[in-house]
Design a protein that fits this description.
This protein is mainly β. It is built from 4 helices and 33 strands. The strands form 7 sheets. Strands 9, 10, 11, 17, 18, 20, 21 and 22 form an 8-stranded antiparallel beta sheet that branches. It comes from Hoylesella loescheii DSM 19665 = JCM 12249 = ATCC 15930. This is PKD domain protein. InterPro entries: Galactose-bd-like_sf. Keywords: Signal.
Length: 465
């Protein structure tokens, strides 16, 4: 008989004891001679190669028994998943040969024998859109973005403990590294002109380059060409590289030995990855745009400043969502998430075709007066192109009384700073912000961040454009 990993057999025994504990009959102890047998027992195994979905089920069980499934999910020939359901379905992300083995259990334990069936998954479960966005480009750490490197608790997006400011790691051998992917599954790491990779001082990696002063260090490495694959686990997608694959920052030996990154966001120009080893989550923002020197433009006013009235405001939301010349209501609502700190994620599951067909309204308790001048700014980043998004700052209940109503084109993956400086004051008991994304394709998400409404003479350190 196959000898299984102790962990899985222990789980099965625990399940048996639970079964006994729930039985209303008197229980005199385990009788090994009364273990279930597999004589005449069979089950159904269905493999859907179009979805990589495998369903295993048993419809008739001998009286007083329940199923114990031992399932291989990683092609190593050992069971690594266990279940006692009569029917269960699993999605396999990687092609290969797998097996499932059914045992029967009763109050006396788990049957010695089992019925094993093998099955084959033809293809990896790859998302063509992700491959298209990844391949044919040279990716780099987006050193101009806040939080381009960050860390936080395991299970999060990895940004709450520490977050790199723009250019935070300049001169550390990070920003000249380049990554490239092919549609056929090839991955190349180029350490750039410096020929180094940046390494966490506590990682134990490339110790010959460790300066032993508690500071992260640069290690000399060569370019590396290997493979990559994409995996799916529920609603999460992962970029998986082979063991000992280089990346612009090596946060730990765990990352170097098992480089499996959760894909948080991907467009043709932006890639957000999270490495999570169960103890800490590391956050990386990469871009495929050319790294050319440019004169910095105005980056908007400062959200965290005490000048910012939006930071202290409360608001409620209202939405309007339609499509077509007939302004037919869309079947799904607009999704809205308040991320905190003046950041919001708006999801547009259905298409719209005209201005004002995808409205997100913020009804605030901010006020304004005619004798004071004001400044306003926010940042917008859309996952798909939107031609003519609308930003309007308006008096509540009076659509014709507003500071401005402006249209702005949003390009996929590009962070747009919208601002208005030194606006003439208007008497408003309540100032509302209305955003409209009419014309956005189905499945678009828009991140709104760093919303600021302030008096012009209040100095927040950002200056003026």
């Amino acid at each position: 008989m196959k000898r299984y990993n102790f962990k899985h057999m222990a789980l099965a025994i625990m399940a048996t004891l639970s079964f006994v504990a729930c039985s209303p009959e008197n229980y005199a102890g385990v009788d090994e001679s009364a273990l279930s047998t597999m004589d005449g027992t069979d089950y159904q195994l269905n493999v859907d190669q179009s979805t990589n979905q495998v369903t295993m089920s048993i419809s008739q069980l001998p009286q007083g028994t329940y199923p114990v499934w031992f399932i291989d999910t990683n092609t190593d020939g050992e069971p690594d998943f266990y279940s006692t359901l009569n029917q269960l379905t699993k999605v396999y992300g990687t092609h290969g040969d797998y097996f499932v083995e059914l045992h029967l259990a009763n109050r006396n334990g788990v049957s010695r024998a089992g019925v094993r069936k093998t099955f084959h998954i033809d293809n990896d479960l790859l998302d063509p859109a992700i491959i298209s966005r990844l391949s044919g480009k040279r990716w780099r750490i987006d050193h101009a973005a806040s939080g381009h490197m960050a860390c936080g608790p395991s299970g999060t997006d990895g940004t709450s403990w520490w977050s790199a400011a723009p250019e935070d790691k300049a001169g550390k051998g990070v920003y000249d590294d380049r990554l490239s992917f092919t549609a056929e599954g090839g991955y190349t790491y180029d350490p750039g002109e410096g020929g180094t990779v940046y390494v966490n001082t506590k990682s134990g990696l490339f110790n010959e380059f460790n300066t032993n002063d508690g500071v992260d260090y640069m290690a000399k490495v060569k370019a590396q060409t290997t493979t990559y694959k994409l995996e799916v686990d529920g609603d999460k997608k992962y970029l998986v590289l082979p063991k000992h694959t280089l990346f612009p920052y090596l946060s730990s030996a765990d990352q170097y030995n098992n480089p499996r990154f959760r894909i948080e966001d991907i467009t043709s120009k932006k890639l957000v990855l999270v490495y999570d080893n169960g103890s800490i989550a590391w956050h990386f923002i990469l871009t495929s745009t050319d790294d050319v020197p440019s004169q910095p433009g105005f980056g908007g006013y400062k959200y965290d400043s005490n000048c910012n009235m939006w930071k202290k405001a409360t608001f409620t939301n209202a939405f309007y969502y339609a499509n077509g010349d007939g302004w037919t209501a869309n079947p799904d609502p607009i999704g809205f998430k308040n991320n905190g700190n003046g950041s919001y994620t708006i999801s547009l599951p259905n298409a719209s075709s005209q201005q004002w067909q995808a409205q997100v309204k913020f009804f605030t308790d901010m006020t304004a007066n005619a004798t004071t001048k004001y400044d306003f700014s926010l940042k917008l980043e859309a996952s798909q192109d939107i031609k003519g998004a609308t930003v309007k700052l308006v008096k509540h209940g009076e659509d014709g009384t507003f500071f401005f109503t402006e249209r702005v084109n949003l390009s996929a993956g590009e962070n747009i700073v919208f601002y208005k400086d030194n606006m003439e004051g208007i008497d408003m008991n309540n100032v509302d912000l209305v955003l409209d994304f009419g014309g956005a394709p189905a499945g678009t998400t828009v991140k709104v961040s760093d919303v600021v409404f302030k008096e012009h003479d209040c100095k927040d350190g950002a200056g003026h454009p």
